[in-house]
Amino acid sequence: MKVNLGGFVPLSTVDWRGKSVCVVFLRGCQVRCHYCHNREIQSGQDFRDTKEVLEMIKESSLVISGVIFSGGEPTMQKDALIEMAKGCRKIGLKVGIQTNGGYPDTLKEMISAGLLDLVHLDIKTRWEHYPLLLKVNCDVVGQIKESFKICKDAYHSEKLPELEIAVTLFPGREDDAVYIAREVDDDIDIVLQQGVDGKIPPLQFEDLKKIGDKIRRKVRIQTREDGEIAYENGRILIADSIPLTDILQARRNY
Ligand code: SF4
């Protein structure tokens, strides 16, 4: 089976908290975020055999315990993704996915088959702002809402071991996180990501802390300057020592 590949990072210690993983980027995405850092793989073609990708994963398997499928939007390529996830399972690796939630059927099938250990779901903005911000229609918003529900239900019924909801934040849109957090149960991780689009100065850690204070629950704050820091009600809980700039540079060098 062929897969439209966007890239491969053989070893990452920052894409799955507490794990060393490799990252497989699948090419193609149905939305166009203005801040996308993987524009070069939003479209285009680089079709490879899934066996070739599984060989790359196998080569990393001595030093990793899991695989993250990212993109682009990995769930667009349902059949290839499922085949590769099964291949990962066969060699004892955990499987995680970074998704914008646009393809709920893929998530549903993978969760039902027990093929997912982690879903990192990016909720881009509050629901009513999606059409304007991402130029997507209401059908796409409906699909993302469905994915959100599927993941939450699966997490609570223990069919999905790990779930985190990520929100990318920009100046002027700080309150998006507050709206989104209202729909995220307390036992599910919320990640506040510093949005960087090169046009306006990004929010800083202190700004994101204030958003965390408004949400009034534990959040994980990600900035280029400080990496990931867990924060709750005025207290920093854990510090990650690897700055995001290093990760982004490593990906650019791929
Ligand atoms: S969903 Fe992800 S890959 Fe797609 S445009 Fe947005 S940031 Fe880029």
From TrEMBL:
Listed Gene3D superfamilies: Aldolase class I
Molecular-function GO terms, alphabetical: 4 iron, 4 sulfur cluster binding; catalytic activity; metal ion binding
InterPro entries named among the record's database cross-references: Aldolase_TIM, NrdG2, Organic_radical-activating, rSAM, rSAM_sf
Cofactor dependence: [4Fe-4S] cluster
Sequence ranges assigned to domain Radical SAM core in this UniProt record: 15-228
A Pfam family matched in the record: Radical_SAM
Keyword line: 4Fe-4S, Iron, Iron-sulfur, Metal-binding, S-adenosyl-L-methionine
Highest taxon listed in the record's lineage: Archaea
PANTHER family per UniProt: PYRUVATE FORMATE-LYASE 1-ACTIVATING ENZYME (PTHR30352:SF5), PYRUVATE FORMATE-LYASE-ACTIVATING ENZYME (PTHR30352)
Name the record gives this protein: Anaerobic ribonucleoside-triphosphate reductase activating protein
